[in-house]
Amino acid sequence: MSLLACSLFYLDASAQYTHTNDMEGRAVHEYNTITIQGSPYLHPDWATGAVTLSNGTVYQGINIMYDQVKDVIIFKTNNDQVKELIEPVQEFSISYINNNATVNKTFRKGYSGDDISPDTFLEVMADGKTTLLKRTSKKIFDRKGYNSATIEREVQESEDYYVATGNKLVKVKKTKNSLLAAMPEKSDFLETYIKANSLNLRNDNDMAKLVAYYNSL
């Protein structure tokens, strides 16, 4: 059974709900996930989401999945059809359970620079006058073992990080020097904050804390 035919996550009847039949979509290319190692999606099951279109229209309380191979949103209509959203999206949020904990993420378009186009979804890790963003992209590779007729498919994931002022991006590494170079005006304060709080800038949460602190100065 394909992933998209799995049991669905249903919303509580009292939750705010949007008529997803009004959303413009097209048929979904379903992956044969039985033969794939790894998942092409951010989360392999349906999650609760809200989508803001470029024209300001907001769809809330909808069932979505985020395809990180194609960088598109998959949604389920009110009559249980599964579609790929084709309307211009400005931002979307997604909430799901992972390891018994609730995960909330927000993704946004509109940034450009350092190999990123305005149509690319970036995860917002810290928001404000300066924004920390993360790009997670996935690709599917086919490989055949030695003396084997069987083709194995594998999802490979890559991550890149950016600091944005306005809609302009600067690519950064998960190091102190790289992050301070992207925020040079307050580097002395940031260095003190890193030491005082024992931040590990290889850690996503600590990177976000540093940028949030920078925005508070």
Polypeptide structure, described:
- The chain is mainly beta and 217 residues long.
- It has one domain (3-172).
- Helix content is 14%, strand content 41%.
- The protein has three helices and twelve strands; from the N terminus they run ββββββββββββααα.
- The protein starts with 24 loop residues before the first strand and ends with a helix.
- Mean pLDDT is 89; it is low at 1-17.
Quick description:
By secondary structure, this protein is mainly beta. The protein is 14% helix and 41% strand.
Give the structural class.
Answer: mainly beta
How many helices? The count is 3
Helix percent band: 10-25%
Mean pLDDT across all amino acids: 89
Kindly give the count of domains.
1
Q: N-to-C SSE series?
A: EEEEEEEEEEEEHHH
Radius of gyration: 19 Å
- Count of extended strands: 12
- Beta strand %: 35-45%
Low-confidence blocks of residues? 1-17
The dominant shape is globular
Instruction: Quote the distance from N terminus to C terminus.
Output: 53 Å
Query: How can the largest sheet be summarized?
Result: 12 strands, mixed
Kindly list the characteristics that best describe this protein:
217 residues, mainly beta, 3 helices, 12 strands, 14% helix, disordered N terminus
Secondary structure blueprint with pairings:
Elements: E1 25-27, E2 36-37, E3 47-53, E4 58-67, E5 72-76, E6 82-85, E7 89-98, E8 101-108, E9 122-126, E10 130-144, E11 151-165, E12 168-172, H1 176-182, H2 187-196, H3 204-216
Parallel strand pairs: 2-11
Antiparallel strand pairs: 1-6, 3-4, 3-7, 4-5, 5-6, 7-8, 8-9, 9-10, 10-11, 11-12
